[in-house]
Amino acid sequence: MSTSNDTVCVVMPVLNEQAYIREAVESLVAQEYEPLEITVYDGGSTDGTLDILKQYPLQVTVELGLGQMAAINRGWSRTSAPFVTWMAGDDKLKPGAIARLANELRDHPEAAVVHADAEAIDAHGRVMAQLKPGNVQLPELAFWFTLVPQSSMIRRQALERSGLMDEGRRFAADYDLFLRLAQYYRFHYVPFSAAQYRSHADSEDSKNYEKVGEAVVDVVDAFFRRADLTEVQRGLWPRARTGSRCFAGGTFCLAGKRVRAWNMLWQALQGDPSLLWRTRLGRHFLLRLISPVQIPPFRLKGRSLVFRGIE
Q1: Is 10 strand, coil or helix?
Q2: Which residues make Cβ contacts (< 8 Å) with residue 212, sequence separation at least 6?
Q3: pLDDT tens, 168-181?
């Protein structure tokens, strides 16, 4: 295990990723950065994922039933690398992404997280949208999770205060983590495309839109029940209430749960109702709600309402 002050640790939790794992791994091992630790945790793949992984110089651990969040926590807990991140088995990194993110995090000691832009791609690798979150701090994050986890890197020391991934969460665990990090630390945004986020019909989020929406509401509500929030942070609650309900309402529309979506509209109005027409998230939700047909992800101008979760 490297103890260099420059080491980056990337944890990749996988399960039956045969269709995409080769592209994901090759984008990672091609990164021109040293020292780089790559740890793969396989939860018990039964397709050809493990056969493909054996073709690369990777540290692969197979543990049946190991969840994604547990795998990430295990990898981060076992490394001494100062900079950590994770990568899904169906996403891809852009050339030079690790080096750029690590250098930016090193050059900005006040920041616990550095994050960048990404491209949303489909199952065939075709670009569907540009994901440009801009400068994200707690006020923005509490309203809408626009930060792209696939294009982020975390200072490991900050996790000692914020805590690791919540292993009890299947969806929105990354949103929960970044909210806790933003509660205590600054984030640093770098405007370049660092990764490609793959959205496809077989992903966990795409198959569970309703659960994703429920999870986002739960994450936001739980965060604002924290006893150690400052008064300024507590003041973000009306905005966060509306944002989380708009997001959940959009996912309920995607799931065909119109009654639940209308309920989210009512709850959104209890926060800051002006955000329903002043923000892209609010307008997208209203458009999905009143549309006589279901609008697929990435068919609306601007950032998609599909959650940027672990796939």
Answers
A1: strand
A2: 171, 172, 205, 251, 307, 309
A3: 999 999 999 999 99
Joined together, the tokens standing for residue 251 give: 């996912």
**Cα–Cα distances in angstroms (integers) from residue 119 to residues 92, 288, 298, in the given order:** 10, 23, 11
Distance CA 224, CA 288 (A): 27
Chain position carrying tokens 């490609």: 196
Q: Rounded to whole angstroms, how far apart are CA atoms 242 and 233?
A: 15
Interatomic CA distance for residues 21 and 5, integer angstroms: 29
114: nearest Cα among 38, 178, 164: 178
**Torsion sign over Cα 299, 301, 306, 309:** positive
Classify domain 8-198 by CATH architecture: Alpha-Beta Complex (3.90)
DSSP 99-112: HHHHHHHHH-TTEE
Q: Write the Ramachandran bin of 52: left for phi over 0, alpha for psi from -120 to 50, otherwise beta.
A: alpha
pTM (two decimals): 0.93
The segment(s) of the chain belonging to CATH 3.90.550.10 are 8-198
Asked whether the predicted pLDDT for residue 299 surpasses 70, the reply is: no
